[in-house]
Amino acid sequence: MFINLNYTLQNNIFLALFVGQSLVKLHEVDSTNDYLKNLLSNSKPLIEGTVIMAEYQTAGRGQKGNVWKSEKGANLTFSILLRPSFLNVNQQFQLNKAVSLGISDVLIEILGKEAKIKWPNDVYFNNQKLGGILIENTIKGNFLKESIVGIGLNVNQKEFDVNDDRATSLSKILHQDYDLDKLLSQICGAIESRYLQLKANKNQLLDKDYLRRLFRLDESHQFEIAHQNFEGVIKGVTPSGRLSMQLSNGEQMDLDLKEVKFIFD
Ligand code: BTN
C-alpha cells in the first residue's frame, strides 16, 4: 500500500551516467524501498539506476526493524535500483561498502572533514548520525539479482526526537541549509563511481577506503555484547560483513548486527 499524491518522472541534469537518470519524485509514500519493491513485483520495466525519492515517508524503515523518521521536505529519503548480478551472495557486503563510501565521499567534500562509516553502513560525524542505509537484495542462484538501496540522510532538519539524541544533520553542522536536489545529484554520482569500482573488481581499493573511514577502528571503547558490557577494539570487517573485535580479555569475536551495540560515553 502506498500513497502517491503526485508522480513526476524527471530527466534532470545529473552528475551520474545512470544512477538517477530516471527519477521519480513523490510527495508522500509509505517507504521508498517498498514503493520500488512494488514496482518491481508488478513487473514494471525499470532501468538500473532508477531512483525513487519522497518528500515524506509515512512508514520509513531502518535496519533491525527500526522506524526511520524524517521531517517532511527537510531531508533526503530515496531508494536506488541496482542490478549487481556480477556479485556472488557471499560478496554482498561489498555493495554496502561501495554505497557507504559513495555517500561519505560527498559528505567529506561538503564538510571538509572526515565523515565516518559506523559499521555496517551508518554515516557519522563526530559521534553523531547523519544518515543510514537499508539495502534489500534479491538473489538468483548464487548471485545477487536486484538490490534496493535505501538511503536516509539528515540534511536541513534542525530538531530531532528526544530519543534520537545521536541524530544530526548537515545544516546543524554547517549552520546553513543545503540544496536537496544538488545533494541528491552529488550522491548519485558518487555512488555510481563506487559501484563502477565494485563492478571493475577493485575490491582492494574499496576495502582499504572502507577500513580507513571505519568509525572507532583500532580504538578502545565499550560495546554491549549479549547484554553485557565489554571493553574492545574494532579490528576490521570479515568478507561476509561481520565486525571483528578484539576484547580486552584477549578474546577475538566476529559479530553480526544483532550481536553488538556501540556504547557512547
Ligand atoms: C538505518 O539507519 O537504520 C537505515 C535507514 C534507511 C532509511 C531509508 S529512507 C529511504 C529508504 N526507505 C526506507 O523505508 N528506508 C530507507
Features of this protein?
single chain; 265 residues; alpha+beta; BirA Bifunctional Protein, domain 2; SH3 type barrels; 8-stranded mixed β-sheet; 5-stranded antiparallel β-sheet; 13 strands; disordered N terminus; binds biotin
What do these coordinates show?
There is one protein chain. It contains five helices and 13 strands. With 265 residues, the chain is an alpha+beta fold. The chain has two domains: 3-212, BirA Bifunctional Protein, domain 2; 220-262, Roll (SH3 type barrels), CATH 2.30.30. The strands form two sheets. An eight-stranded mixed beta sheet has the order 1-2-3-4-8-7-6-5, with helices on both faces. A hairpin with a 2-residue loop joins strand 7 and strand 8 (143-153). The chain is globular. The N and C termini lie far apart (41 Å). Biotin is lined by residues 31-33, 57, 60-63, 66, 68, 77-79, 122, 132-134, 150-152.
Kindly state the percentage of residues in helix. Answer: 10-25%
By oligomeric state, this entry counts as single chain
- Fold-level CATH name of the largest domain: BirA Bifunctional Protein, domain 2
Query: What ligand molecules are bound, each kind once?
Result: biotin
Indicate how many domains the architecture comprises.
Answer: 2
Tell me the Rg in angstroms: 18 Å
Q: Which residue ranges are poorly predicted, with pLDDT under 50 across at least 5 consecutive positions? A: 1-12
Content of β-strand: 25-35%
Distance between the termini: 41 Å
CATH homologous superfamily of the largest domain, by name?
Answer: Bira Bifunctional Protein, Domain 2
Structural class, by secondary structure, is alpha+beta
What is the averaged pLDDT score?
A: 93
The main sheet comes to: 8 strands, mixed
Task: Give the strand order of the largest sheet, numbering strands 1, 2, ... along the chain.
Answer: 1-2-3-4-8-7-6-5
